[in-house]
Amino acid sequence: MRTxxxxxxxxxxxxxxxxxxxxxxxxADGAIPWFTGGHLDPWDHVEAAMALDVAGEHAAAEAAYRWxxxxxxxxxxxxxxxxxxxxxxxxxxxxxxxxxxxxAWHHYLSTGDDxxxxxxxxxxxxxxxxxxxxxxxxxxxxxxxEEDGSAPDEALLTGCSSIHHALRCALxxxxxxxxxxxxxxxxxxxxxxxxxxxxxRFLDKDxxxxxxxYPVLGTALRGxxxxxxxxxxxxRFVVPGLGVRCVSDRPWVTGGESAELALALWAIGESTRAVxxxxxxxxxxxxxxxxxxxxxxxxxxxxxEERTTWTAGALLLAVAALGGDEAxxxxxGGEELPSGLTEECCAVVR
Length: 350
Hints:
Elements: H1 12-23, H2 42-54, H3 58-71, E1 81-83, E2 86-89, E3 92-93, H4 94-98, H5 100-111, H6 114-132, E4 144-145, H7 157-176, H8 182-197, H9 209-217, H10 223-232, H11 234-237, E5 238-239, E6 243-245, E7 252-254, H12 255-267, H13 271-280, E8 294-296, E9 301-302, H14 309-322, H15 326-333, H16 343-349
Antiparallel strand pairs: 1-2, 3-4, 5-6, 6-7, 7-8, 8-9
Helix pairs in contact: 1-14, 2-3, 2-5, 2-14, 3-5, 5-6, 5-7, 5-15, 6-7, 7-8, 7-9, 8-16, 9-12, 12-13, 12-14, 13-14, 14-15
């Protein structure tokens, strides 16, 4: 196991316990549910797998990706949720399906395993094809395909920010394997432009902190624009000493959102504040190394009473980025990822 430490946040022993809290939940088939008896969704499954890679648990991470390869639907999708290996929610969410590309590229950068990258490449291609088939005329992506095959003519800012990041990682895989994908480049350019410049194209979910920081985390916003966005709503979402609210008008801080904000802060050079955010959520830590999902501070109550693998995973990824883990820095820093943001792409949507 690779050592993960961050002064004031995690000792090596604490990090190892957090990694174990993920490993003990992983099923024999590689699936990583939220918690024992809980469901699995493909996005959070990938986040947990990436955390295993930063800890050096490459075989366990590979097993998680093999579960995705084995479970992919013929159309390139995965269902929104699985329980005990059986699909329990039959709609298919676009950002859930796209995220395999982020995981595949991160796993390659963590392991240098070209053979596995080539093996998972068809899975990535099918997933991206499914996602881009949900593309809308304005460059955004519909947020899901229903069980009956229909798709709402609606896009979510958080989901599309994540898809933009996934497309950039998919392009990195394609470039490495010398498999040019000009349609993906165009789609990444159009989507990144929409996320950065056209908030009116998305459903209004302004209450949710994820809509605040995900354009930054998803690499569409960087530089002055990213810092301005973070500053604008800092006081609305950040509760000093406790973490980040999930929703602006609720007294509920969550570990996953807090760790993801820390990762976004690190990506724009705000490492000091990132560390402070990670310190602030250590009250969610359990003695077994896992993390409670959230805390209702007006009631002084843990809620819900579950310790989720993706909360632990998000925290480990933020610690890895702050510690300079090369794979995590490359994937979430964004500077080394193909952007797709050519003048031709941007002209399409202006």
